[in-house]
Request: fold
Amino acid sequence: MNEQCHEFDECEALLPFIRADKPVWNAEYKESFVSDSSEICTAAQTLGLRTLVLPLDLDDEFRISCD
Reply:
């Protein structure tokens, strides 16, 4: 489980897990990902990450899945 690897440009550090066929889940909270999730979802799918864009308050106001 990872948080904000796209926002902080750290997703490549997760590649050893992905290459070992381990599931890697990621949560993102950045506001710009909410208004346009296409770029982050494309990047997540390319890397093999299971990514959700969630509200920072985790109040279930919305949930955007990149799957």
